[in-house]
Amino acid sequence: MFELFRAGGPLMWIILICSLVALTIVFERMLTLRKKQVAPANLQKQIVDLVKSKKVTQDKVDAIRKHSPLGAVYAAGLENLPYGVESMREALEESGKQVVHRLGRYLNTLGTIASVTPLIGLLGTVIGMIKVFTAITASGVGDPTVLSAGISEALITTAAGLSVGIPCLMFYRHFRGRINELAVLLEENALILLDTQKS
Q1: Helix 144-198 to helix 11-32 angle, to the nearest 10 degrees?
Q2: What is the rounded distance in angstroms from the CA atom of residue 110 to the CA atom of residue 39?
């Protein structure tokens, strides 16, 4: 395996670093973007009960904010509870935008890796082919072993770049879809808080 890696040339190190960064982001986002992590099921009932019992204090709001991303949205609404429904709606919308933005953290990096690694592989192909033509110029086409190193480097870096880029693109799309679903869920929960205040 190491021989294959070494045969791919110096660009393989860049592809390796990209793959390690991407792997870290994928595992981190998989843990962070779980539904129960973002919007715990029992939190909605707790907030509704708290509002109905009129026992909203700053300490409780601070604790709710630290609880989860949904808690941060609820806390923004609860802080504006004394100022009426419209003020609450604005605070919930603003907080919701910030939370959704935070949920997308590191995804630009993942998307960049998905785009760049195949191009790095392509660059490796170009470098490998340059070596092939340089070898042909120097010694002609009579000895195939002279050409094999350049062709090998060209194919290995292309394969490595695609092997990293394709899964990165799949995970990037998957996480974008997950964030859209979670954004809808946060909005639904925020509307429930507003409805509680209207009734």
Answers
A1: 20
A2: 24
